Amino acid sequence: MALTRPEPGWRMSLAGSELRSIQLGPGGEQAELLFSAAWVRPHPMPLGQGDLSAHLSGVRWVLSGVTLSGLGGANGLGEPIGRLRDGSELRTQSRCLADVPLPSQWPGPLSLTLVLPHGDVLEAQATGLSCLVDGDFDPMPSLAC
After folding, report:
1. Nearest residue to 87 (alpha-carbon basis) of 123, 39, 59
2. How far is the C-alpha of 52 from the C-alpha of 49, rounded, in Å?
3. Which of 46, 47, 86, 124 has a CA-to-CA distance to 64 between 20 and 30 Å?
């Protein structure tokens, strides 16, 4: 019997990913974070392959039972936001994560800290999180034109 090695999964780093917009659902109980370019890396990293980090479009995070703070009024909601900075993280009851598997589900309670391009910080408290990939899962090494 030949041994086969499973394909690596992909993990999305918050810092370095580009957040396009935040959309609130009816009643504000749900928020969707839409990423124009998620920075991803294979996990576990294949040995001897060099830097395999890439960008992936179509990533969407859905927060349920959410409370947002840190953005004045509607500032930033539904408008282009930009590249997230170091310090962005997801905190569950037992872990603090700077990157998450794609796709994945996270039961709450949890909190999310996003450090925005100009240093503003968005905080979210939620009862659940779904990290989704819409369309084909086709990471690209660069999004440069």
Report:
1. 123
2. 7
3. 86
Give per-residue pLDDT as tens, 33-77. 999 999 998 876 655 555 567 888 889 999 999 999 886 544 446
Quick one: tokens of 30? Answer: 């749900």
Residues in the chain: 145
Other C-beta atoms lying within 10 Å of the C-beta of residue 98: 14
Give residue for tokens 């909190």.
111
Express each pLDDT in 12-27 by its tens digit. 999 999 999 999 888 7
d(CA 57, CA 55): 7
Both structure tokens of 31: 């928020």
pTM of the shown model: 0.82
Q: What's the start-to-end Cα distance of the chain, in Å?
A: 46
